[in-house]
Design goal:
It is an enzyme of class 5 (isomerase). The protein is an alpha+beta fold. It contains seven helices and twelve strands. Helix content is 27%, strand content 26%. Helix 1 packs across helix 5.
Length: 251
């Protein structure tokens, strides 16, 4: 009970810090065609994602909208993604809550940054370049605080989740770890809350959250997170970048 109480106070404190750090978004207006707010709708059509086969070979492109729409038969286009797990020098992990206006998994809790490499200048974007771009946009972390050498590409995870039946995920997700001291100033169009959670409080903290976990984060939490977190000091030794895992997403 003591740990859970401390965790609740930690989250409440950092929710206040978030409101102080983040700029307030403009009053949202709904996209009348899709029920999606304009800033999110623009990204759905402007961002060109990378379609892949089950071996993660690049086979074509599609818009972000096309990659996340659930078809009548439940299928979703398989595309490339990445998930960054961010730790400070003490080893505490950044946990964030996705903004309520997000198209996929709004108000879900997840790891630091989850997004896609794009097709830019007629070629696929490098994963770490994409991760730095999105961490700068979503978390406000200056690019000069994210040395590419501090990222560890651990492995890949192939998963499918139908989401809300309208928007879902089917990705080969490249899992990246990053440890360092960075300045976080989240974009409130992307992130509503965040905090750094100590490893010894994590398991007690999860049941206190006021929403569900994203499917990709939940799979990593169940199958690999403890091993990797326990070995932050030698994380590069555990990397299996050529491997593609398939885990069950147990709710």
């Amino acid at each position: 009970m003591l740990v859970r109480s401390l965790s609740r106070r930690l989250w409440s404190t950092l929710r206040y810090q978030k409101r102080f750090l983040s700029s307030e978004p403009a009053k949202p207006q709904q996209d009348v065609n899709y029920g999606v707010e304009p800033i999110q709708s623009e990204a759905l059509d402007k961002d060109i994602c990378l379609l892949v086969d089950e071996k993660d070979n690049f086979i074509g492109t599609a818009t972000k909208r096309e990659c996340h729409k659930v078809a009548d038969d439940g299928s979703i286009l398989l595309h490339r993604a990445f998930s960054v797990f961010l730790f400070n020098k003490r080893g505490d992990m950044l946990l964030q809550r996705r903004a309520s206006q997000k198209v996929t998994y709004p108000d879900y809790y997840t790891n630091a940054c989850c997004s896609h490499p794009l097709y830019i200048d007629e070629k696929p974007e490098d994963i770490i370049t994409a991760a730095r771009r999105r961490m700068n946009y979503e978390l406000g972390i200056p690019l000069n605080q994210m040395d590419p050498k501090l990222f560890t590409f651990l492995t890949r995870v192939h998963y499918h989740d139908p989401g809300d039946g309208v928007w879902g995920e089917h990705e080969i997700d490249h899992i990246l770890f990053f440890q360092g001291e960075v300045r976080v100033k989240p974009n409130s169009d992307e992130i509503s809350e965040y905090c750094f959670v100590p490893k010894n409080e994590f398991n007690s903290f999860i049941p206190t959250l006021e929403g569900p976990l994203t499917p990709w984060f939940n799979m990593i939490r169940r199958h690999r997170l403890k091993l990797w977190w326990d070995n932050l000091h030698r994380i590069k030794e555990l990397a299996e970048p050529d491997k593609i895992n398939k885990f069950l997403n147990e709710k």
